[in-house]
Design goal:
4% of the residues lie in helices and 31% in strands. It is mainly β and 275 residues long. It has two domains: 64-157, Immunoglobulin-like (Sandwich); 162-275, Immunoglobulin-like (Sandwich). Strand 2 (76-79) and strand 3 (85-88) form a beta hairpin. The longest helix has 7 residues, at 240-246.
């Protein structure tokens, strides 16, 4: 949101005071005349510029203030709003490489420079705008951070298409108003209330802080359920190792509108693992 600035203009008014007494005219001192004011330089004209003056370009810095922490050590903060951006803590930044890929076809590799901690996904690789989900409904974006040893430190997947499967999800028991439910067979769904305001789509985010992984899926307008794919689902019954990695996670659902986006549901889920 651009906050309009307020330009405060201060105007000083100088008043002249006269009024020496009638009986002291002869003894009154006369102040020496003030020195002549220096001429005000005239701005040089530039052909073709408005008013003949040189225009001043003001760069507006991009902000990643909406980013939230996505791992236990609070080294990686991510915002999937437009523009998609990632903030890396200084202790994790040295030698880090960020790889952005769209559906495995286009790829951008960025090596973080000295004192660089904020990264914005290139516009041509974003799922917003002319190359976004509207133009490529099956597109996926993968954002990967590797350390100096090429080990994956953080990864986020954002997919345009999602499996809403309302009938399959409706049969699940969303206990206590939770937005998350899973069945004995491993079917995992996220639920949210119908949006009162018009939304052109929804974004469902699942974050696993222990392994620094984020899975996000875009659901169509009018949807109120989304079934998580197997790689994004907790899968707590698959193995003890997986359960320990994913037994607590964060869920968030955003309504995407032309005016921006709103958080409509969120849950922090904690489960116990059978050892």
């Amino acid at each position: 949101m651009v906050v309009p600035g307020i330009l405060a203009i201060s105007v000083a008014i100088l008043g002249a005071c006269t009024g020496a007494s009638q009986g002291s005219k002869d003894s009154a001192r006369v102040s020496p005349p003030a020195p002549a004011a220096s001429p005000v330089p005239t701005p040089s004209a530039v052909p073709g510029s408005p008013g003949g003056l040189t225009p001043t370009a003001v760069a507006t810095p991009r902000s990643c203030a909406a980013a939230s922490s996505r791992d236990e050590s609070r080294r990686f903060s991510l915002s999937l709003a437009e523009p998609v951006c990632l903030v890396i803590a200084p202790q994790a930044a040295p030698g880090a490489t960020i790889v952005t890929a769209i559906s495995g076809r286009a790829e951008s590799v960025h090596q973080l420079g000295a004192n660089e901690t904020t990264f914005f996904v290139p516009d041509d690789l974003s799922l917003y705008g002319r190359n976004g989900c509207a133009a490529n409904p099956d597109a996926t974006m993968r954002l990967t951070v590797r350390n100096s040893r090429s080990e994956v430190e953080f990864e986020a997947l954002y997919a345009c298409s999602a499996n809403t499967m309302p009938d399959e999800c409706r049969s699940l028991d969303f206990v206590g108003g939770s937005v998350f439910a899973t069945s004995a067979s491993g079917v995992t769904c996220v639920s949210w209330k119908p949006s009162l305001n018009l939304a052109y789509s929804f974004r469902v985010e699942t974050t696993y802080p222990r392994i620094a992984r984020v899975f996000a899926y875009q659901a169509p307008p009018g949807a109120t359920y989304l079934r998580l794919p197997s790689d994004a689902a907790p899968g707590l019954r698959e193995s003890l190792e997986r359960c320990l990695q994913r037994h607590y996670f964060d869920l968030a659902v955003y309504a995407l509108r032309s005016s921006g986006e709103d958080l409509v549901e969120s849950n922090a889920v904690v489960a116990e693992c059978n050892r």
